[in-house]
Amino acid sequence: MKILIVDDHALIREGIAIMIKRIQPQSELWQANSCASALEIAAAEAIDFVFLDLNLPDQPGFVALELFKERHALMPVVVVSAQEDRNTVLKALELGAKAFVPKSADSERMRSAIEALLDGRVYLPESILGTDALPHAAAGSADASGTWSLTERQKEVLALIIMGLPNKLIARRLNIVESTVKIHVSAILRELKVASRTQALIAVARYGIKLPML
């Protein structure tokens, strides 16, 4: 597995790298201290995950995230940021981040986040997973075994939704027509009892729903 760590602070990059190596010793790691160098690496290597800081020196705010999703739509991006207020987290999700890890997270929480991501699950800070993050009905939508009535195709569509892909790109990726994607999206939101794609991502994180790695 190839993982790119992007942060302008070497100490942060090294800390994340050490934890990843402890969890996934065989992983190949790349590091970058700017958006420009990170995009060069991503274009040259088959990167599986990107751990991306917000407010990089050459691309402040969410610009770096937008550039990554624009140029590498299928590349999962994990935002690692000192900004962890609800608005920042939700904005990152809306722009296609697969996960959000606060820099304030201790080593155990960071480890849990990395393990979840490498296992095909989603990780979000507890502030977003609170009881008011989703419609109340969503809490009871799993059956007694904790599973969900999603078909394999719906799980594939949901995995691509989590990556921030629009319906047109999901259709292209799965080799189906866009109208079929819309039907699947409606069914997924209905099953998870949520009203938006962002809420679907939150539900996936809260309930530990494992999705295929596409």
What key phrases describe this protein's structure?
single chain, 214 residues, alpha/beta, Rossmann fold, Arc Repressor Mutant, subunit A, 2 domains, 5-stranded parallel beta sheet, 5 strands, 46% helix, Sig_transdc_resp-reg_C-effctor, DNA binding, phosphoprotein, LuxR family transcriptional regulator
What does this 3D model show about the protein?
The protein is an alpha/beta fold and 214 residues long. 46% of the residues lie in helices and 11% in strands. It contains nine helices and five strands, in the order E-H-E-H-E-H-E-H-E-H-H-H-H-H. It has helices at residues 10-23, 35-44, 63-71, 86-94, 107-118, 152-162, 167-174, 178-192, 197-207; strands at 2-6, 28-32, 49-52, 77-81, 99-102. A five-stranded parallel sheet has the order 2-1-3-4-5, sandwiched between helices. The modification 4-aspartylphosphate is found at residue 53. This is LuxR family transcriptional regulator. Pfam families: GerE, Response_reg.
